[in-house]
Specification:
4 helices, 2 domains
């Protein structure tokens, strides 16, 4: 067969190409982007024998329906995802965290994520994609990255340049877990808020709003009182920073966030908790727990060690 490719029958709700994102471009207004859940991104690539930084398909809630044309190829799906493979007149129930061999004209139907937001499709191949600033990560707000900065749509084709030769089946015994509290360090404008506002931030429960996407997660709950100024001179932002606008409801900056902002920053989500944070669906409850910088660094080292240990088991 001269050409190997996937045809998109259904694009899904928010399906994009992602990798580990773009580095050192904040000064020109370009955020990192990249896979929202980095651990599941890395595991998907490892399961299909790709390099750790290889492009992957990220989907949210409902995933794509893809039909494959070509010689045998391995795929793997990570996250908490319901999917099936339609092969001739047979239906195969998919299992996450294991590689699966697709044959010519198989249909891969990624039905939905299960009580989570993001899932990942790894393909054991080099895909034909456009790279910008050494990354294919798609930022639909900025219209940059692979697929002309857009979500995947019906009737598109994903061309394959080269299939990995090794079709060995691999799997990992892994279950995604929820997190009871999101750990944060104090933000640079922490003292802008009243003592009662600080107490609310660390003791009260917040609800994830429906107005959340790859750019930011809006929370709803008891209002956090600002006693200094609800607007500040715009400053640089980072992934995970928590801003509080005049309405008193926190906004957590996520992977496609703007690089500057003028709302006071009450805290920053630690990197070790970011993957679990982004998987919280609208309506989920959040409580924040304060940790210091030294603890945040130690927790991140532990997170990286756990991730590498999982990768080594594949």
């Amino acid at each position: 067969m001269s050409k190997n490719y996937f045809k998109i029958i259904r694009g899904g709700i928010n399906t994009t190409f992602q990798d580990q994102g773009r580095k050192n471009l904040y000064h020109i207004g370009i955020p990192f982007s990249g896979a929202m859940d980095n651990r599941n991104y890395l595991l998907a690539n490892k399961l299909v024998g790709n390099k750790s930084e290889a492009p992957i398909i990220e989907f949210a809630y409902q995933g794509p329906l893809l039909k494959y044309f070509g010689t045998k190829i391995n795929i793997a799906i990570t996250g908490d995802v319901n999917f099936i493979i339609n092969r001739n007149s047979n239906q195969i129930i998919g299992k996450c965290y294991q590689s699966i061999t697709l044959e010519n004209e198989d249909e891969l139907d990624i039905i939905s994520t299960n009580k989570s937001v993001y899932g990942y499709l790894g393909i054991s191949a080099e895909l034909k994609l456009k790279f910008q600033w050494s990354s294919c990560s798609t930022n639909t707000k900025a219209r940059i990255g692979a697929n002309d900065g857009s979500k995947l749509k019906e009737n598109q084709e994903i061309d394959i340049l080269k299939i990995n030769k090794n079709l060995t089946n691999t799997k990992l015994d892994y279950t995604n877990t929820k997190i009871e509290k999101i750990r944060v360090i104090k933000g640079t404008n922490f003292d802008y808020f009243s003592e009662n506002g600080k107490k609310i931030f660390f003791e009260k429960e917040f609800t994830v709003s429906k107005l959340s996407d790859r750019m930011g997660m809006r929370l709803e709950g008891t209002k956090i009182e600002n006693i200094t100024d609800t607007n500040i001179k715009s400053e640089g932002l980072i992934k995970g920073v928590i801003q509080v606008p005049a309405d008193g409801n926190p906004i957590i900056m996520l992977s496609d966030h703007g690089t500057i902002g003028g709302y006071p920053k009450i805290g920053v989500v630690i990197s070790a908790d970011y993957d679990k944070l982004v998987q919280l669906t609208p309506g989920s409850k959040i409580k924040f727990q304060e940790v210091n910088l030294a603890s945040a660094e130690s927790l991140f080292k532990l997170y990286e060690l756990e991730t590498q240990n999982l990768i080594s088991q594949i």
